[in-house]
Amino acid sequence: MRFLHRLSIRARITLGSLLVGALVLSGVAVVLHVQIERATLATDQSLAAGDAAPFVSDLRHNPDEPPDRPAEDVLVGIRAADGSWVVDSLPRDVRAALPTTAPSDEVTLRLRTDDRTATVVGIPVANDDGSFVVWAAHDGRAGQETLARVDRSLVIGTLLALLAFAATAWLLSTLALRPVGRMRRTADELSAGSTDGHLPVGTSDDELAALARTLNAFIDRQREHAERERRMVSDASHELRTPLAALTARLELAHRASGDAVALERELRAAEDDAARLVALATTLLELNRLDEAGPPPSTAAADLVTELMGSIDRARALRGAGVRDIDFAVRIDDPERHVAVEPAAFARVVDNLVANAIAASDVHGVVRVSLDQAEDGGLDLRVVDDGPGVPSDFLPQAFDRFTRADSARRAVLGGSGLGLALVRGIAERAGGTATLENADDGGAVATVRLPPA
Question: Which residues make beta-bridge pairs with 435?
């Protein structure tokens, strides 16, 4: 088996075709040999029986007359019950090989001596003069020579057919694997970075074409992932550079204000804010990375998610400052024990991000409305509505992409780093749900997260 594994696919296909062809052709050759041998034996038996028929008839119908003498080329012998030969034209070696006892019924024997192979028919005959056995022989050398010639032809034909099988299998496998060779060469070029194309797809709609299309789709996904990772690294570097530069500047100012306690306190607090922004950004990036690697999330009872919702509302109310007048929420849960496929902490992050975005987008002294409804199938629908100016329509399709934010002087309309909605969508999709953002008819934006039952 290790030897086969070292062979190429083309060689294995050719070898397999040879083995199958050898088995089939050998079976056909054996069947033909047996059929021809049986036909030869039947012919010899018929000829021998035909030679014996006149003598059997004479013994039965003319017992008083002595049997006629056989013709020169007719091999017939009539043996009486006492072992004497009434008529004898059989060859000596054939006669010596005959059984000494009389058969009870007609028999056919295939006798092989040093000189010949003969087919002998023995027919017992009884009349008024006693019992006799008519033995008629037919020399089978002609049939054996014919069978030998046929066997030689079968052997030669089988060998030629096997060679044709091998050549055909090699040619067909070469033609069939030619697209594989082209794909391999193109894959080498793609891996070397010399081209950004795709693997060639053959004109035939066969398995290799389907494989090429599947691999091309895989290549497109890998390129998309690589491009997304490249953009993410670039955007992350850009996002980290600003707070790092600000933090460095704050620390330099703090050094200069070392003799002024008030100024030093002010700069240190500003540095703490910049450090907090860095920590928040790094935490969000880490959570997004974990979402990409995550397996199936654990399930949580709806009652526990209601507790997380209320905690997020409390935190938002404590931090809202003068941005909005109030944050209203409504909860409609019919089955608190029904489980949803999301972690409590992840659900809290979803609420925190959406409420923070709504507060940032709302008008001064506006109201943010949050609702959590249980659907008929046991899933949860979270809606966060603000009364701000809404989201630019051209930004809605990319609102959930990483590091994307609405314009207006990089105002934090949808989150400070542009990662909040990306994290919301990642958590929702990991749970098997969806996240959408749209503008309300009467103004403001509506963020909706659908979480299916576990």
Answer: 449
